Amino acid sequence: MPPKLLDDHVRFRFDPAGGDVTSVVLECDPAIPGSREFALVDGLWELALPRPDLDRIEYRFVVTRPLPDGVAAETVLDPDNPVTVETAFGSRSVMQMPGYAVPSWLAAPAVPGSFHPMALAGETHDDVPVTLWSPDGHDGQALPLVLVNDGPEYDQLASITQFSAAKIAAGELPPHRLALAHPVLRDAWYSGSPSYLRTIAEQGFARIGEVAPIRGPVVVVGASLGGLTALLVALLDEDEIGGVFSQSGSFFQASLDGRESGYKYFDRISHKVKDILDTREAARPLHVAMTCGALEENADNNRHMAAALRRAGHEVTYAEVADLHNYTAWRDALDPHLTQLLRDVWGEAQG
């Protein structure tokens, strides 16, 4: 039986289907409160999870079965729930709360587009691969540009090219291109690496412009470490950049993020974050839009960052969503938040 919302809790069930099972544990985001241990009730394993303030829950079951010489634990999708999602860490079952709906733009008419692979050579040891998406019919024309950190993942798991294609078709955004940057050395590059930041901001946009001319200010997008990187790229004071869209940015601080303190690049990130938090006046104000899950671990450091950027003179919008640290949450927040940022940076689309 699929999970069911009952008053103040979500009931999960697992049917052992005649096999021996010694325990069942719910695997979900640690930000969700409540016990994870199922109890055996009338032949079914059952869990009552206090209802979290979320629109959806991504989860799996950890099922332990006896073996002749011990036990074996297996992580499985919910066999009774057909709703699943692909994530950066594999498939998950999904419990959707009443009222949740996928974005309408996912099924909206969209302009056709094409992909062009290229590489950005700069200060990084390895070139940065980029896939350029362009709406058809604009070859050689100068168009606005969005650079997307973790670009292939944003496209595969958050449908960002469909977002752009649908918004262009609807006349809500002008024709524009997406530069989908591949995270080849993600931890090293997306942790405040000066060589990566300069490769993107100083050489990268010039190289892209040689292939596809750029009109107007560039907007840089990213989530998690990519959200941090989007902001750091924009703060290099390059005139080409006018906007930042950061989702669940990893703005680590020593006072807030003890769980992350063992991360290899924690000190480099926290020092760069502190520099931004201590800045009292922006040399070049930016349009910044930020989203974050209200319950996720990064919420406090995102709130601090939004306040600091606003205090320094940047134009900042910050929205918290009823989801957690995942690509579906970031997809669902593209509209209206990225839509409005692009309109603010590029001007109102004529539709």
TrEMBL record:
Residues of the Rhodanese domain: 304-339
Alphabetized Pfam families for the sequence: Esterase
Entries under InterPro entries matching the protein: AB_hydrolase_fold, Esterase-like, Mycobacterial_A85_antigen, Rhodanese-like_dom
Name this polypeptide is given: Rhodanese domain-containing protein
Species annotation: Knoellia sinensis KCTC 19936
